[in-house]
Amino acid sequence: MGAPLAKRDRRTRNITLIRVFRLIRLLRRRPHWLHELAQELDVTTRTIRRDLALLEEVHVPVWQSEHTGRWHIDRRYLEDVA
Q1: Is this structure's pTM higher than 0.90?
Q2: Are the beta carbons of 63 and 75 closer than 8 angstroms?
Q3: Would residue 36 count as lying in a domain?
Q4: How many domains does the chain have?
Q5: How would you label 18-37 residue by residue, b for 16+ Cβ within 10 Å and e otherwise?
Q6: Per-residue pLDDT tens digits for 57-77
Q7: Which CATH number is 73's domain given?
Q8: I need a labelling partner for 79 at 20 to 30 A (CA). Which of 2, 24, 31, 35 fits?
Q9: Please, what is the Cα angle at 58 between 55 and 64, to 5 degrees?
């Protein structure tokens, strides 16, 4: 096992985790533009891009529409959790 995380690192990880779950919930309601997500979650669009990249990396079904530019998620994802 690795070294224990410092208290600050755990807090940062928890904040990120909470924000990513909120992001999933927003996307399950309806597609959003990047700036809408950033505004709703009170972060920059750069942070949202990082969070979306994280979701893609762990195979969460998110995508950006080529036609509208809005971000989508398969609404069935985490149906019983979120």
Answers
A1: no
A2: no
A3: yes
A4: 1
A5: ebbeebbebbbeebbebebb
A6: 999 999 999 999 999 999 887
A7: 1.10.10.10
A8: 35
A9: 40
